[in-house]
Amino acid sequence: MASKIKKIAVFTSGGDSPGMNAAIRSVVRTCAYLKVECVGIYRGYEGMVEGDFKPMDARSVNNIINKGGTILKSARSDSFRTPEGRKQAYDNLVANNIDAFVVIGGDGSFTGAMIFNKEYDFPVIGIPGTIDNDIFGTTYTLGFDTALNTVVDAIDKIRDTASSHNRLFFVEVMGRDVGHIALNAGVGAGAEEILIPEENLGLERLLESLKRSKKSGKSSSIVIVAEGDKTGKNVFELKEYVEENLPIYDVRVSVLGHMQRGGTPSCFDRVLASRMGVRAVEALLEGKSNLMVGIQDNKLILTPIEQAIKGHTKIDKELIRVSDIMST
Ligand code: ATP
């Protein structure tokens, strides 16, 4: 039976992440391949409320697979949080004959999509785009792998200075609620200790570990701190704490900040984005809705958006153990 979906909109919403452009390209090209019309919405839900739409054909996404950020721009929209704003958005979609949309974003963007779907029975599919990797229903979100490579690269550079001057560096990485970036990049960059929101390492243990490493002859150390680490101290407070309790250390702080979000997407993120975009369009044409495309055991899977929002990702305990062993 022919699908009722003849025109699909695609947009990016919330914080940008590398791989979003590759996902837009994939949605647009899959629509072209399957002879479905495609429309790009600028600035996420804000553009939907304002009617900021642009038809997209296969050639409109030339040379974007390698670009960070998002050509469709992203925004946070307060008006879409109101029933009036969502009504306006719905009217704009209907006026443009749009039958369904693909939203590329994080859990906030998915919450908006789910509410909209409930109110208007409008077909929606989500693609997880966030560097934090904090979405349930997928082992990887778009941008996570690139962010890890960016962080590891930055820490490698910091290590040059740390070892030249026998210093201890606290490096703050993104992760208010989850420590996936800190843990993975920490192991990848050979960090001495990794402080994450999920586990309370304890300040005593940190001091013990630093004492031990000094004794064992290490000349420099790197401690990775996720923004929301469980010690309750930020990097600057940690620096003060260690300097007070272990004056042998010359401590420096580096906050990586927004550079973690930018940059050329890794090959992994480009491939993942391309696969997810195809699946998202196919799912809509199969009559599916209110689902998020994810990847597990290298297979694409569909998870109800509600579950993706409400579920929690788990920190990899095995990786914590590996990190402990490596810091011997
Ligand atoms: P990030 O991972 O960067 O935080 P996100 O997708 O979670 O990305 P948010 O800023 O939380 O980003 O959400 C993006 C947009 O989704 C909001 O600006 C708003 O327009 C819409 N949105 C979020 N929550 C709701 C809600 N409860 N009702 C309606 N719309 C919402």
TrEMBL record:
Q: What biological-process GO terms show up in the record?
A: canonical glycolysis; fructose 1,6-bisphosphate metabolic process; fructose 6-phosphate metabolic process
Pathway per the UniProt entry: Carbohydrate degradation; glycolysis; D-glyceraldehyde 3-phosphate and glycerone phosphate from D-glucose: step 3/4
Top EC category? transferase
Provide the E.C. number(s) assigned to this enzyme. Answer: 2.7.1.11
As its record notes, the protein acts as a catalyst of: beta-D-fructose 6-phosphate + ATP = beta-D-fructose 1,6-bisphosphate + ADP + H(+)
Q: Where is the active site?
A: D132
Question: For binding substrate, which residues are annotated in this chain's numbering?
Answer: T130, I131, D132, R167, M174, G175, R176, E227, R252, H258, M259, Q260, R261
Record-level GO cellular component terms: 6-phosphofructokinase complex
InterPro entries from the UniProt entry: ATP_PFK, ATP_PFK_prok-type, PFKA_ATP_prok, Phosphofructokinase_CS, Phosphofructokinase_dom, PKF_sf
- The keyword Metal-binding belongs to this UniProt entry's keyword annotation: yes
How the protein is activated or inhibited is described as: Allosterically activated by ADP and other diphosphonucleosides, and allosterically inhibited by phosphoenolpyruvate.
Binding, ADP? R25, S26, V27, V28, R29, R159, G190, A191, E192, K218, S219, S220
Name the UniProt key words of this record, in alphabetical order.
Answer: Allosteric enzyme, ATP-binding, Cytoplasm, Glycolysis, Kinase, Magnesium, Metal-binding, Nucleotide-binding, Transferase
State the needed cofactors, names only: Mg(2+)
In this chain, ATP is annotated as bound at G15, R76, S77, G106, D107, G108, S109
Q: Which residues bind Mg(2+)?
A: D107
Phosphofructokinase domain ranges (all copies)? 7-284
Please name the GO terms that the record assigns under molecular function: 6-phosphofructokinase activity; AMP binding; ATP binding; fructose-6-phosphate binding; identical protein binding; metal ion binding; monosaccharide binding
Q: Which Gene3D superfamilies match?
A: 3.40.50.450, Phosphofructokinase domain
Question: Where would you find this protein in the cell?
Answer: Cytoplasm
What PANTHER family does the annotation carry?
ATP-DEPENDENT 6-PHOSPHOFRUCTOKINASE, PHOSPHOFRUCTOKINASE
Give the function comment from the record. Catalyzes the phosphorylation of D-fructose 6-phosphate to fructose 1,6-bisphosphate by ATP, the first committing step of glycolysis.
Protein family per UniProt: Belongs to the phosphofructokinase type A (PFKA) family. ATP-dependent PFK group I subfamily. Prokaryotic clade 'B1' sub-subfamily.
Per UniProt, subunit arrangement is: Homotetramer.
Can you name this protein? Answer: ATP-dependent 6-phosphofructokinase
Q: Which gene specifies this protein's sequence?
A: pfkA
